[in-house]
Amino acid sequence: MTQNKITELFQIKYPIVQAGMVWVSGSKLAAAAANAGALGLLGGGSMSPDLLRSHIRAAKTLTKNPFGVNLPLLYSKIEEQIDVCLEEGIKIFFTSAGSPKKHTPRLKDHGCTVVHVTSNPDLAMKCEDAGVDAVVAEGFEAGGHNGRDELTTMVLIPQIVNAVKIPVIAAGGIADGQSMAAAFCLGASAVQIGSRFAATQESSAHENFKQAILSANYNSTMLCMKSTVPVRLLKNEFYVKISELEKKCAPNSEILDYLGSGRAKKGMLEGNLVEGELEIGQVAALIKDLPTCHDLVKRMIEDYNAQRLKLSPL
User: What is the structure's pLDDT at 227?
Assistant: First the structure.
């Protein structure tokens, strides 16, 4: 592949970003993705400031290539997390779950590159006005927390590409060279991939969770809790209970009480497939093995190049 705006922005070999997922994207995954030529991201959303510092330092011992941190802006300790990242020399920030307007100027003043995750063109334009260097346009096929507009990746990407002048990174439903090629045809400059990297050898996801991903089929995931905190996850007993509460129009307070805290950790990190929140994308149905990050990226690039050759002129 030739270099483009994103590879130049991050100084990486391939225009592939390993998403910074909670409980999954630790130092081993971020470093392995970086060593494979992608941009690795630490998932700061599930880390205390001290734990984030330790993962940053561990990643530095595992790779000499660029890596960054994903930070949900609504996290109560976001200020401390940013302080830690800046103290440890992090220069690439992916932000999500909130407005980038408050923190982007400070990060830019420190010479950092800032990317914000968004789910519709209006929000993408606001991100551009806030000064971010690129946006992730995430369709609602994606796993984990999602936008409320339910825009699919195929219709979202060209709308955001047309709405902003900064580079667009496509996300949601991308797991192989075929979907990567499709994203580029829609105008994206790179792809961000979560679910496929969650199912790798270096991922910190529990083995039970990884096997559940491999067993998923076309209807194994569902977007739920749309009235509170929209999230796509694998169907299990926890999902069934939440669905029952929603069907009887339970108040949001009751749903949030049942959700409690630590559900994602219980499922994704500790492997409780019954009571845990198992955040994964629709593309899980296409995931059938657990490669290393090196083999995954290599396979994706080979597949991408093969797909390009199939796009013959009409």
Answer: 74
| Cα→Cα distances 221→23, 51, 68, 235, 296, Å | 19, 30, 28, 6, 23
Mean pLDDT of the chain: 93
What's this model's pTM, rounded to 2 decimal places? 0.94
Tens of pLDDT, residues 122-174: 999 999 999 999 999 999 999 888 778 889 999 999 999 999 999 999 999 99
> 5-205+289-310 has which CATH code?
3.20.20.70
Please state, as a whole number, how many other Cβ atoms lie within 10 Å of the Cβ of residue 185: 14
- Report how far residue 254's alpha carbon sits from residue 237's, in angstroms, rounded to the nearest whole number: 17
Residue located via tokens 């192989």 = 176
Q: Which two tokens stand for residue 62?
A: 């595992």
Beta bridge partners, 138, equal 171
Beta bridge partners of 192: 17, 171
The 3-state DSSP class for residue 136 equals strand
Residue 189's SS3 state is: coil
Pairing status of strand 144-145 against strand 113-118: unpaired
Distance CA 95, CA 44 (A): 10
Q: Is 5 exposed, middle or buried (0-12, 13-18, 19+ CB in 10 A)?
A: middle
- Helices 293-310/177-185 angle, 10° precision: 50
For residue range 31-61, list pLDDT tens digits in order: 999 999 999 999 998 899 999 999 999 999 9
Residue bearing tokens 């996801």: 205
Sketch the domain layout of the chain as residue ranges: 5-205+289-310, 207-283
Q: What is the band of 75 on the pLDDT scale with cuts at 50, 70, 90?
A: confident
**Nearest Cα to Cα of residue 166 among 132, 137, 193, 190:** 132
Distance CA 52, CA 55 (A): 5
